[in-house]
Amino acid sequence: MNWSTNNWNMSPGAAPGTPGAAAPAGPAAAAAAPEENFVFDVSEADFEAQVLELSMQVPVLLDCWAPWCGPCKSLGPVLEKLARDYGGRFILAKLNTDEAPQISAALRIRSIPQCFLFIGGRPVDQFTGALPEGKLREFLDKHVGPQVDPIQALRDEAATLEPEAAEALLTQALAELPGHAELTLDLAERQVARGALDEAQALLDGIATAERTARHGPLQKRIDLARNRPQGDPAALAARIAANPKDFEARFALGAIRVFEGDFRAGFEQLLDVVLRDKAEGKPDRERARKQLIDWFEACPDAEAVSWGRRYLGMYLN
């Protein structure tokens, strides 16, 4: 068997499709490596199958060590931890160099620990010495990408989809992970957006009290707002305000209608005008508007509108 590094063409920056190029490290690659096989010992007898051939499917980090090597004993456990942390996006193969003289010669190993990253059947990068965990992650991330939380990746994917497809994806995920708080809230938000308030309420009620996050209360407020349509005709209220800008009751009513309709910024504008215009002794309407705005800020899903509203509220109160 020819293990010559001249044939392997060590080239970390090789382009895709060329010798040394990185094979994709996505779900298919991870599927090729069951969790119990993230770390294993390799010998000259199975090196071709366990390193060269496997690296065609998933990156393989070859840890070259020896029992007498002190730094090897420090590096090994850190590499094993990273193999588990990365969840199969690379495989750790451990080679005892004392028992593998041919491979050691082919790799031109002069000092250990020395590690080689195999991708596409060839070594594409290497390092020597017991590097700290942070440096090891930097090395791996160049080739297999940074560690990704699969739940967060799914949530990010849902955020890019059309509403119906996003709901389907989140529903499927919750079938596999029932009760997951963030997934539940993501789905409930989409249900509120399309007016499925009972379904959203059922999801919120199903989250255990101990697992409720800061998102729970604001979403409950949105459901409560959506269930209670304010009284009044928007056109008539707008006409009253045009005739008398200090008709604060009309502003409160129109603001509440706009928030119910989902136009939080328009609702904020009405109450901010109250804060700005109330000059009465004790300024009772100003304080009432301030409290209502704070309540709406918590319920509003539009972070930009909330930032705008808070900024102007602060300006008008000073």
Structure overview:
With 318 residues, the protein is an alpha/beta fold. The chain folds into 3 domains: 140 residues, Glutaredoxin (3-Layer(aba) Sandwich), CATH 3.40.30; 78 residues, Alpha Horseshoe (Serine Threonine Protein Phosphatase 5, Tetratricopeptide repeat); 84 residues. It is 56% helix and 9% strand. The protein has 16 helices and 5 strands. Strands 1-3-2-4-5 form a 5-stranded mixed β-sheet, sandwiched between helices. Helix 12 packs antiparallel against helix 13. The radius of gyration is 30 Å and the shape is elongated.
Give a summary of the structure in a few sentences:
This protein is an alpha/beta fold and 318 residues long.
- Given this structure, which CATH class of the largest domain is correct? Alpha Beta
Distance between the termini: 80 Å
Number of extended strands: 5
Examine the coordinates and then state which fold CATH places here, giving the name of the CATH topology of the largest domain.
Answer: Glutaredoxin
CATH architectural grouping of the largest domain: 3-Layer(aba) Sandwich
Radius of gyration: 30 Å
How many domains would you count in the coordinates?
A: 3
User: Helix content range of the residues, please?
Assistant: 55-70%
CATH homologous superfamily title of the largest domain: Glutaredoxin
Flag low-confidence runs.
9-35
Distinct helical segment count: 16
Q: What is the typical, i.e. mean, pLDDT?
A: 86
Q: Given the C-alpha coordinates, what overall shape results?
A: elongated
What class would the helix/strand composition place it in?
A: alpha/beta
> Order of SSEs, N→C?
HHEHEHEHEEHHHHHHHHHHH
The biggest sheet amounts to: 5 strands, mixed
The share of residues in extended strands comes to 5-15%
**How do the strands of the widest beta sheet line up side by side?**
1-3-2-4-5
